[in-house]
Amino acid sequence: MTTAAQADAKVYPPSAEISARAHVDAKKYGEMYTASINDPVAFWGEQGKRVDWIKPYTQVKDVSYDLGSVGINWYADGTLNVSANCLDRHLNTRGDQTAIIWEPDDPNEPAQHITYAELHRRTCRMANILVSMGVRKGDRVVIYLPMIPEAAYAMLACARIGAIHSIVFAGFSPDALAARVNGCDAKVLITADEAPRGGRKTPLKSNADAALLHCKDTVKCLVVKRTNGQTTWIDGRDYDYNEMALEADDYCAPAEMDAEDPLFILYTSGSTGQPKGVVHTTGGYLVYAAMTHEITFDYHEGDVYWCTADVGWVTGHSYIVYGPLANGATTLMFEGVPTYPDASRFWQVCEKHKVNQFYTAPTALRALMGQGNEWVEKCDLSDLRTLGTVGEPINPEAWNWYNDVVGGGRCPIVDTWWQTETGGHLMTPLPGAHAMKPGSAMKPFFGIQPVVLDPQSGVEIDGNGVEGVLCIKDSWPGQMRTVWGDHERFEKTYFSDYKGYYFTGDGCRRDEDGDYWITGRVDDVINVSGHRMGTAEVESALVAHAAVAEAAVVGYPHDIKGQGIYCYVTLMNDREPSDELVKELRTWVRTEIGPIASPDVIQWAPGLPKTRSGKIMRRILRKIAENDFGSLGDTSTLADPSVVDNLIENRASK
Ligand code: 6R9
C-alpha cells in the first residue's frame, strides 16, 4: 500500500458538465468562501435559514476559545425542533416520498420504503412510548440497535421530546455498553433481540442484559423484536416495543428546544483514558449537517443517497439521518456488510435502488478491490453521480479503483475529512468546484480556516509546501460544545496545547498548490478500519487480565484495515507465553471492548523500552511494529537499551 504522499499527484479537474449542474462551482466557492471568512455572522445568519425555527434567532455567534472560559454558542436565542425539521416540515410537499429505503442483511428479505408520512407516524409512536416510560426533556436515552429503521425512529423520537440520545455501536461489548449507560446516567436503553449482520446474529438483548447488571436498577429497557430470537425477559424492566407501537398514538407534539440544548452525546476515543462523550447541540449542528450534505455530495431534489456507515458512528448521525432528512432526501439504510452474500452486495444495492450518491470508507473499498472487478462490472451503476469516502486517508490504489471501476471515470470523489467532534465535513473537494488529487482532502468547507502549526512552537506556518499539526481557527456551527459532564477535559483536550485554536489531533500537509493532505493522527489514537481507537483503551483492557503485567499498544500499517492493532505484552512472572494465551488475550479484549478492538498481533515482551523516568518510548515500538529497524533513532536515553534488541529479534513474523 503506498501512501498518498508517495504517489505522483495526478490532478483531476471537475468536468464542465458537472460544474454546470452543481450547486457550487469554482467561482461560487471562491465568493462564498471569502464571504464566510470575512463576515461569518452575516454568512451563517443567512445559512441558518435552511432550517425552520419556532422562534427565529437574532444572535448568530458567540464563541470564546480562551482557556478557562471556552464557550461555543450559535443561534443561541433561537428555538426549534430537529425532528420537526426532518419530518413535519416535509409533510405537505413530500409526505408520500420515500424518506428511508431500508435494505436488510438478507437480500431475499424485501426492502422497505418508508415515506415521510410513515416516518413521522413511527417517530411519534416511538416518542409517545418513551414518554410513557417516563422520559422527559433533557433525559438521556442510550440506543444499542442494529441498522434497522427503528434506529432512526429512536433518534428522531428523542429529538422530538427533547431527550438526549447516545448511540452505542452494536459491535461494542456489554462492558463498553454499561460504561456508556452509566456515563450519561441514561433512563432508558433501547435495544433489539438480535442484530443480523453478514448472515450471523449478534445477541444484542443478552449483551444488554449483561450490561444492565452493572447499571442502576431504575434503567428501563425497550426491546425491538428484529428476529424474534429467544431472549430472557424481566417484567417491569423490559418493554416490548412492537406491542407498544400498536397501541401508541400517531401524534406527539415536538418540544420547543433552545438552539444550544444538547441533541446527542456520542462517545469517541481519545489519546488518554476512557472514551469521552462528545456533545452536539440542536441548532448549529442541524444547519451544518444539512448544508454539508447538500453541497458536498451535490445532492439534488429526488436523488437517492446512500451512506454505508453505521448509525453508531458520527457519520451515521450526520449523513444517514439528520443531514439527509433535514434536506427532504431519500436516504438508504443498509443492515448488512459489503461482502454478504458476496463481494457484489454494495453494487447490487446501488443498482437495485438506483443510488445517485454513494458514501463509504476506504477500508471497505480496499477489501472489495481485492476481490476483483467482476463483482462491480456485472452491476449497472449508471445512476451513480457522486462518490464519497470518510474515516481515514485513502491510498491512491483504492482511490483509482473507486474512480475507474466503480465510478467509470465519470463521478467526482469527495474525500471528506472531519471528526466526531466537528459534526460535519471540514475539508473536502466539492464535486463541481474543485480538482481532485487522489488522497487529498483538498479544500476547506465554508467558514473553516485550517492552519498548519509547528508542533513544538505552536506558531502558524505560512505559505505552501509545508507540514505540521492541523488546527482550526475560529468556530463553525457544527462544532462540539463540551465533553459530557467534563467541560475541563473539553478545554484541555482541544484548546490547551495550541492557544486560540481548535486542535484536531491530526497532522497535515499543505502542498505547493495550497491543497490539504491529512497525514494521520499525531496522538495515540489509531484508526482501524475507519474506527477510532485509543491505544490506551486496549492497553487497559490487556492489563486487566490476570496474566498481564504490562502492555503497550501501537498501530502498524495493515493492507485492508489501514492500521492494525499491535500489542506488546509483558507477562506476570509466573506465566509462560503460549499460543493458547494469545487466543485468550484476543478473546479477552473483544469481551472488554468489542470485536473492533481485537488485537492483530501480540508480541511477548520481556521488557518495554522506557526512559529513565519510566515513560514508554512508543516511537520505538511503532518502528519495530512497522518492521522498520533502521531508523529507531537514539536509544541511548533508555533505561535498558537491550530490551530493544530483544524486541527486534522476536518481532512477531506476522
Ligand atoms: C468522521 C470520522 C476522525 C479521525 C480524524 C482523522 C481520520 C477521517 C478522514 C480522515 C484522512 C479523511 N479521518 N476522515 N483522515 N482523510 N477523509 O471519521 O470521525 O471517527 O471521529 O474519526 O479520522 O484522523 O481525526 P471519527
From TrEMBL:
HAMAP family: Ac_CoA_synth (MF_01123). GO terms for molecular function: acetate-CoA ligase activity; AMP binding; ATP binding; metal ion binding. The gene is acsA. The keyword Cell inner membrane does not apply. This is Acetyl-coenzyme A synthetase. Residues 29-86 form the Acetyl-coenzyme A synthetase N-terminal domain. Transmembrane segments: none annotated. Residues 88-475 form the AMP-dependent synthetase/ligase domain. It holds the Pfam family AMP-binding. Belongs to the ATP-dependent AMP-binding enzyme family.
